[in-house]
Design a protein that fits this description.
The chain is 35% helix and 13% strand. With 239 residues, the chain is of the alpha/beta class. A six-stranded mixed β-sheet has the order 2-1-3-4-5-6, sandwiched between helices. Helix 2 packs antiparallel against helix 6 and helix 4 runs parallel beside helix 5. It is globular.
């Protein structure tokens, strides 16, 4: 399908490529426990499946021995479509008409606001069954080289992102989970929290996510103490 990205979008890609050459984007954020709890549960529920990882970085999570590689095997899923404009060999834009799932973690905040709508238009157009989005609301990210700006160039609060995604999720009517890293209306935080909002989710899948979250809290309190918390009050599980 055709996309309508602006020249501004292309400029920010070039800026991020300079950072990628310095290994600024590890691709490890996908593996943080609270994010993995959600996408793992969705892949299990809909598996065998396939997904587009939009903004996969160097695809660290998919290397042999890492969690995504194992999940693909465990669920007998097809190899995912990996895309990141700053990381060859994943830099060719996916010219696909449809894919069951979409995973996009710590990406939309790096896309200029002039192209947020075009990006979401594309993702919701090609996604046919399920979607997981994680968007950071943290102001204090790494700056660009030669530009006095943060790489988090589009900042919205949790409530603002919920409003944006709600319009798409209601219209598309597929299971969608949106997570952000802070509940309040400030951008000055450490980016290690977790909020959870969902649309059109089967109750069995919601229960699976809640159960896995509870198990992790009980079995790995030391990991929670490191700062990656996910309080139940920051979730709309009952909606």
């Amino acid at each position: 399908m055709e996309t309508n990205f602006s020249l501004n979008h292309a400029e920010y890609i070039e800026r991020n490529k300079l950072l990628a050459e310095e290994n600024a984007f590890s691709g490890k954020a996908l593996l943080e426990w609270h994010k993995a709890t959600v996408w793992y549960s969705m892949i299990e529920y809909f598996g065998p499946t396939q997904w587009l990882d939009y903004g996969c970085g160097p695809a660290f999570a998919y290397k042999e021995g890492n969690q995504m590689h194992q999940v693909i095997q465990e669920t007998n899923s097809e190899q995912p479509i990996l895309y990141d404009p700053c990381h060859p060999p994943y830099d060719e834009f996916p010219s696909i008409e449809s894919v069951p799932g979409v995973v996009s973690v710590d990406v939309l905040e790096h896309i200029p606001e002039s192209d947020t709508k075009s990006t979401l238009d594309y993702l919701f157009e090609v996604c046919s069954e399920w979607m997981f989005l994680f968007i950071s609301t943290k102001r204090g990210a790494r700056g660009f080289i030669h530009h006095d700006e943060s790489t988090h160039c589009t900042l919205k609060t949790r409530e603002q992102w919920v409003e944006v995604i709600n319009e798409y999720a209601v219209k598309k009517a597929i299971p969608v989970v949106l997570a952000t890293d802070y509940t309040q209306d400030t951008f000055d935080h450490n980016g290690k929290g977790m909020t959870y909002d969902h649309w059109n989710m089967p109750q069995e899948l919601v229960d699976k996510i809640k159960y896995k979250r509870e198990v992790f809290y009980k079995s790995s309190p030391e990991r929670i103490a490191e700062g990656y918390s996910w309080e139940l009050t920051n979730s709309n599980f009952e909606v």
